[in-house]
Amino acid sequence: MSSILAFLRRLRPDNFTLALLFTVAVASLLPCTGRVAEAFSAVTAFAIGALFFLHGAKLPREAIVAGLTHWRLHLLVLCCTFVLFPLLGLLLKPLALTVLTPELYLGVLFLCMLPSTVQSSIAFTAVARGNVAAAVCSASASNFLGIFATPLLVSALVVHGPSAKPPLDAVMSIVLQLLLPFVAGQLMRRWIGAWVDRHKPLLRFVDQGSILLVVYTAFSQAVSEGLWHKVGVPSLLALALLCCLLLAVVLMLTGWISRRLGFSKEDEVTVVFCGSKKSLASGVPMAKVLFATSSLGMVILPLMLFHQIQLMVCAVLAQRFAARAEGARQAGAQAGPQGRAQGGLQ
Known about the structure:
Blueprint lengths: L1 H10 L3 H15 L4 H25 L2 H5 L5 H21 L1 H7 L2 H11 L6 H9 L4 H26 L9 H32 L1 H25 L2 H4 L2 H28 L4 H11 L4 H11 L2 H53 L1
Helix pairs in contact: 2-11, 3-10, 3-11, 5-7, 5-9, 5-13, 5-14, 7-16, 8-9, 8-14, 8-16, 9-10, 9-14, 10-15, 11-15, 11-16, 13-14, 13-16, 15-16
């Protein structure tokens, strides 16, 4: 009974997920329009710039270059993030379009192009007894390269999408609104890095606050254009099942490829968690930059669902990896004294 209760507690949504659901509900009942929407859009743009500035100030420069010593692992994580995921997104197109609208499939394809998470990838790797140092480097590299890789992938794969911006506009928008604040934060880290490190709750507040602002403005626009008339309960269930299928395939492939390439168990854990997740914190701001406002709600809806599913599944998976590591440790500890005793008898 206690194990069942523990399992149910792990599946319980966290506070931020509840805040996301509340924001969607408020946008559905009280959508902002007109000048209020314009004001929210301006505040959101400022919050996103502040978010990437603080991320640049927070990230140690060593974390960007330190991962070069374990290049095989990092290259595999990046390939899973920016090659495997987009390929799966394209392969799922025939199935997706039978149960989803083209706009929702565009959201599924977009989430496949996003970088990995940072905080949760590192946290799950630590819980699962994986290579935490490698997770820090891989997740950081994924987010930094995603600033360039995601708009290029969107430009290459969403060539017929009416809501996608032209390639040059997409790259320039990312550079101006996301990369420049990030670089400015990196340059200012020498003076403000210690202060940012001491005030991590501020970064979390800006991080989550900017996402909630984008979600509110995006869903306000989408609701005004009849979002919930286009997306019913059957479509939401089909979308959730498609996200589960996508995550299950990636989890199996990342583990299988890691073993085939001869990585250790600790490195396998790192590849599985860093290579299978997608960043809501990066994805929502990027969607605002890359897509027209009229389609933004439909684009980020699959990402929001995938985000919650990956957290619940990876929480359970991390516990299983940790139990496996603990069992191996205990087996090794028991084998040690037995081996010494047999050696003494001989």
